[in-house]
Amino acid sequence: MRRLVLAAGGMMLVAMPAHAMSVADFLAKVNALKAKGAMAMFSPDIGVLKREVEGASDAYRADLAAAAAAGRKPGSCPPPKGKTKVGSTELIAAFEKIPPAQRGISVKAAFAAMMEQRFPCK
User: Fold this and answer.
1) Contacts within 8 Å (CB) and 24+ apart, 70-73
2) Are 34 and 85 in contact (CB under 8 A)?
3) Which of 45, 95, 101, 108 is the most exposed place for a label (fewest CB within 10 A)?
4) CA contacts within 13 A on the Cβ side of 97
5) Is the pLDDT of residue 24 over 80?
6) Distance (Å, rounded) from C-alpha 118 to C-alpha 86?
7) CA distances from residue 107 to 1, 52, 117, 121 in whole angstroms, order as listed
């Protein structure tokens, strides 16, 4: 019985989608880290933010690859991975340009919009 309950609990964790971080939540964590000053280096939120951006980047690249495989025009034409970097300052500035009323969008969606603006297809 106990195994059944544990297995069911594990299935619920797998079946539920991960909560996408909103731009508002992302910027709130960024501002909280800025307020900590040098002590921010010891915050686990740095890793959380880094993983969120890496996940958005990986998903964005996967979406581009899927569009290309399906014969659709990509939303943007960035250089190959590793050829250019988007710095944290640039990323945060792009997110801060989003009007507060629209910051409920996901980091993934905001990252894609930033890439489309930065690397339009010619």
Assistant:
1) 73/121
2) no
3) 101
4) 11
5) yes
6) 10
7) 41, 7, 15, 22
Q: Are 84 and 78 in contact (CB under 8 A)?
A: yes
User: What integer pLDDT is reported at residue 18 of this predicted model?
Assistant: 57
pTM: 0.79
Give 120: exposed, middle or buried? Use CB within 10 Å, 0-12, 13-18, 19+.
exposed
Contacts of 94 (CB under 8 A, 6+ apart): 110, 114, 117
Residue 9 confidence (pLDDT) above 60: no
Kindly report the CA angle at 60 between 53 and 29, in degrees rounded to 5?
A: 20
Q: Within 10 Å of residue 72's Cβ, how many Cβ atoms? A: 10
**pLDDT, position 8:** 41
SS3 percent helix, strand, coil of the chain, rounded to 5, is 70, 0, 30
Exposure string over 87-98, b if 16+ CB within 10 A, otherwise e: eeeebbebbeeb
Predicted pLDDT at 122? 81
